[in-house]
Amino acid sequence: MNAPFTYASPTLSVEALKHSIAYKLMFTIGKDPVIANKHEWLNATLFAVRDRLVERWLRSNRAQLSQGNPSGLLPVDGIFDWPNPLQCLVIVGYLRRC
């Protein structure tokens, strides 16, 4: 399946991240933002950050494949080994904007 596939890449703005977190809270976790607790908000945040990290991971893997270097592909579980979710936000570039 090498058919072209297009999608809207998540934008790197604080406002876009806020919307993504709210959508994850409502549609992935299934919770109303008005009554969600801190744990549910944290999970929604982690899902939103994970989406952005996976998108970058896929882009990196595509670049490695296009250069004929399949040995440079990173395993998906390798990008989730960080001990602190806030580090993920720094890596993706959101905390610099806050």
Number of strands: 0
Structural class: mainly alpha
The number of domains is 1
Helical run tally: 3
Helix content: 40-55%
Low-confidence stretches: none
Question: Globular, elongated, flat, extended or rod-shaped: what is the shape?
Answer: elongated
Q: Could you state the order of secondary-structure elements as H and E? A: HHH
N-to-C CA distance:
40 Å
Largest sheet: none
Percent of sequence in beta strands: under 5%
Rg from alpha-carbon coordinates: 15 Å
Quaternary state reads single chain
Average pLDDT, rounded to a whole number, is 78
Plain-language structure description:
It comes from Citrobacter koseri. Keywords: Glycosyltransferase, Transferase. This is Glycogen phosphorylase. The protein contains 3 helices and no strands. It has helices spanning 14-29, 38-66, 85-92. α1 packs across α2 and α2 packs across α3 (85-92). The longest helix has 29 residues, at 38-66. The N and C termini lie far apart (40 Å).
Brief digest:
The chain contains 3 helices and no strands. The protein has helices spanning 14-29, 38-66, 85-92. Keywords: Glycosyltransferase, Transferase.
Which secondary structure elements does this structure contain, and how are they paired or packed?
Layout: H1 14-29, H2 38-66, H3 85-92
Helix pairs in contact: 1-2, 2-3
